[in-house]
Write a sequence for this structure.
């Protein structure tokens, strides 16, 4: 513990930039590395989930990501479930360079109510393409639209918020009982974000198949300046990985996937997240580099359109290639923003590990 004056003590914490992976054993050929990841009954070619953000995931890009071998998640509170054709609005938004005007415009267009019939239509569209179907709601909208999502026959239900707890307290609204809600669903649930051992343990006890670590948003989040809240991802992942191990013992063998969600700007960050204990990662900003992403070079999260207290902003990204090139290459930049799957495969091969689960044992060091 570090003393902060006379009345406060705190633990030192670490982010991805503070640590490095250390090769300490044999190497192996990249053809010997298997990146397959199993979540509930489905197996994916690589352990990466496309975050439910309107700037990167439309029904079309969800399908494209799924056909590459990953899991794409559609934001069921986004523009695609508020408007039958949001493309003109996305075009208008892309033309706004002023951040204040862009925020006002987002607050305006996201004020349109979410429509149950559009939720069903979008999920049907994804299913018709023959890829896994996943949709995301915030905790506050799960009661209203949860049954709609379940009827639509999703493969995975994602409950994602900036901060999600199993014990929300409110004297104004009836809080979502996560344990009861998940128990009554006949669909595997991924829930988060969280950033501590105790919170993760509580979320695992709700029956979730996966827990999101972090507050999402990453490069577009401004929670640290608006609320003073920030997630040190390296420390958070190591803590939640310990919660996963303890819950495995507590539950008699029930394994909950730990999924890093936030601060994953490069392929090196993805490798570090798995080295620290993540089973998979949820990526947003790397996909904003895709020329076929709906944000047209801009990236934003749900916090950016809050009607009273925005805690995020649009961020401009250079368009480097298609979603396929961002994920599978070839890369034309040495910055770790393309060929994310190839880079993860190379990281495992360079340190001598054959799969991501084994890679969680790799040695890491802290920069002085």
């Amino acid at each position: 513990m570090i003393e902060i004056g006379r009345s406060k003590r705190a633990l030192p914490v670490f982010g991805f930039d503070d640590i490095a992976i250390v090769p300490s054993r044999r190497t192996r050929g990249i053809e010997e590395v298997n990146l397959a990841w199993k979540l509930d009954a489905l197996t994916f070619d690589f352990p990466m989930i496309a975050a439910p953000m309107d700037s990167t995931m439309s029904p079309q890009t969800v399908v494209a990501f799924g056909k590459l071998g990953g899991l794409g998640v559609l934001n069921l509170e986004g523009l695609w479930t508020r408007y039958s054709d949001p493309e003109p609005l996305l075009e208008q938004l892309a033309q706004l360079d002023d951040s204040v005007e862009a925020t006002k415009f987002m607050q305006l267009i996201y004020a349109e109510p979410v429509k149950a019939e559009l939720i069903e239509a979008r999920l049907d569209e994804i299913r018709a393409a023959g890829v896994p179907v996943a949709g995301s709601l915030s905790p506050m909208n799960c009661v209203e639209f949860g049954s709609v999502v379940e009827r639509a026959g999703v493969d995975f239900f994602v409950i994602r918020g900036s901060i999600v707890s199993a014990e929300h307290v409110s004297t104004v609204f009836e809080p979502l009982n996560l344990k009861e809600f998940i128990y009554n669903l006949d669909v595997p649930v991924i829930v988060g974000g969280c950033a501590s051992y105790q919170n993760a343990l509580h979320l695992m006890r709700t029956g979730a198949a996966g827990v999101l670590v972090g507050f999402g948003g990453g490069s577009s989040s401004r929670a640290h300046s608006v609320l003073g809240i920030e997630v040190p991802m390296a420390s958070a992942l190591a803590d939640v990985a310990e919660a996963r191990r303890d819950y495995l013992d507590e539950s008699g063998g029930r394994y909950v996937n730990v999924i890093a969600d936030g601060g994953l700007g490069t392929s090196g960050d993805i490798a570090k997240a798995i080295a620290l204990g993540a089973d998979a990662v949820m990526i947003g900003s790397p996909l904003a580099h895709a020329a076929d992403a709906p944000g047209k070079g801009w990236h934003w999260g749900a916090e950016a359109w809050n009607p009273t207290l925005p805690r995020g902003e649009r961020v401009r990204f250079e368009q480097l290639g298609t979603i396929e090139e961002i994920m599978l290459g070839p890369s034309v930049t040495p910055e770790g923003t393309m060929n994310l799957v190839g880079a993860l495969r190379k990281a495992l091969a360079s340190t001598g590990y054959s799969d991501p689960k084994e890679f969680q044992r790799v040695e890491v060091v802290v920069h002085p």
Summary: The chain has one domain: 2-366. The first helix runs from residue 59 to 68.
